[in-house]
Amino acid sequence: NHNGSIKCYEDDWSRKKVGRRGTVYYSHIGNPSKQAKRNAVMLRNWLGSENIDVGYIEAVVVFTNEDVKLKLIKPTVKVVYVKDLLGVFRSQSNVRMTEEKVNSIAEKLYKLK
């Protein structure tokens, strides 16, 4: 839920903000793309340990704050606003899972709550 102007160059992320007194400052925001890649691998491994083979899981960084401004230069993962997330799933139309597999994954994830 970051705000301000976010710049991503490959795997290097920074944020430009304007303070209360109008002072512009820059800050490092960690590395959302590397975090998303790690999480995708962890999810795939966990599902595998639950005997659910899903193959490759694509990492996506999603920004939920509508006011954030993104400047993306060769990002290593997909980076989208939350309003565009459904389009990411729709663009993967060549990936098909059976209803049984989708339900099995949903059940396993639901139990994590």
Index terms:
single chain; 113 residues; alpha/beta; four-stranded mixed β-sheet; 34% helix
- Report the span from N to C terminus: 21 Å
How many helices? The count is: 3
Average pLDDT, all residues: 90
Low-confidence parts:
none
Instruction: Report the strand count.
Output: 6
Helices and strands: which structural class?
Answer: alpha/beta
Shape: elongated
Helix content: 25-40%
Over the alpha carbons, how many angstroms does the gyration radius reach?
Answer: 17 Å
| Residue fraction in strands | 25-35%
Strand order within the widest beta sheet: 3-2-1-5
Along the chain, the helix and strand elements come as: EEEHEEEHH
Characterize the largest beta sheet: strand count, sense, and whether it forms a barrel.
4 strands, mixed
Describe this entry's structure for a reader:
The protein has 113 residues and is α/β, with parallel strands linked by helices. It is 34% helix and 27% strand. The protein is built from three helices and six strands. A four-stranded mixed beta sheet has the order 3-2-1-5, with no helix packed on it. Strands 4-6 form a two-stranded parallel sheet. Strand 2 and strand 3 (24-28) form a beta hairpin.
Question: In terms of topology, how is this protein built?
Answer:
Elements: E1 5-9, E2 12-18, E3 24-28, H1 32-49, E4 60-63, E5 69-73, E6 78-81, H2 85-91, H3 99-111
Parallel strand pairs: 1-5, 4-6
Antiparallel strand pairs: 1-2, 2-3
